[in-house]
Design brief:
- With about 140 residues, the protein is α+β, with helices and mostly antiparallel strands.
- It has a single domain, classed as CBS-domain.
- It is about 35% helix and about 20% strand.
- The protein has a 3-stranded mixed beta sheet. It has a two-stranded antiparallel sheet with strand order 4-5.
- A hairpin with a 2-residue loop joins strand 4 and strand 5.
- The model has no long low-confidence stretch (mean pLDDT about 85).
Length: about 140
């Protein structure tokens, strides 16, 4: 709870993807929470690439509701930062909505955690596969 963003950017589910992108750029965020009468979801940069751009959908006509992830990986506010980073690593997500009593109270991102606990970086690195690793100069630390 201490590390989360307490005022995440929230958009209406009927907003176009183009308008969501404008908001994301203006606010310098990589994802937005989508809210409608049925609950909440999330849209990330990756969602926009995979679900709109790669499928050649019109971002002006495609709504947030159509591409948002509804079954989000979430965390409760009393969980430890270590638990959050492990959950992010295991579920391959970079953002966790923080939910208390069924309500969104914040958003926890990898950046939020690493600002507070940079020592947890190694836990995240495990999930990344380095392309062409054998061609990159990796220096021995010792």
């Amino acid at each position: 709870m201490d590390a989360m963003t307490k005022s995440p950017i929230i958009v209406n589910s009927n907003l176009s993807i183009k308008d969501c992108c404008k908001i994301m750029l203006k606010e310098s965020v990589g994802g937005v929470i989508v809210k409608d009468k049925n609950g909440i979801g999330i849209i990330t940069e990756k969602d926009i690439i995979e679900k709109v751009v790669a499928k050649n959908l019109d971002p002006e006509k495609t709504t947030a509701k159509k591409i948002m992830t509804k079954n989000m990986v979430i965390i409760s506010p009393e969980k430890d930062i270590y638990d959050a980073i492990i959950k992010m690593r295991d579920k391959d997500v970079r953002r966790l909505p923080v939910i208390h009593d069924g309500e969104l109270i914040g958003l926890l991102t990898e950046k939020d955690i690493l600002k507070i606990e940079p020592s947890l970086f190694d836990l995240l690195v495990e999930r990344y596969e380095i392309r062409e690793e054998d061609k990159k100069p990796i220096k021995n630390r010792y």
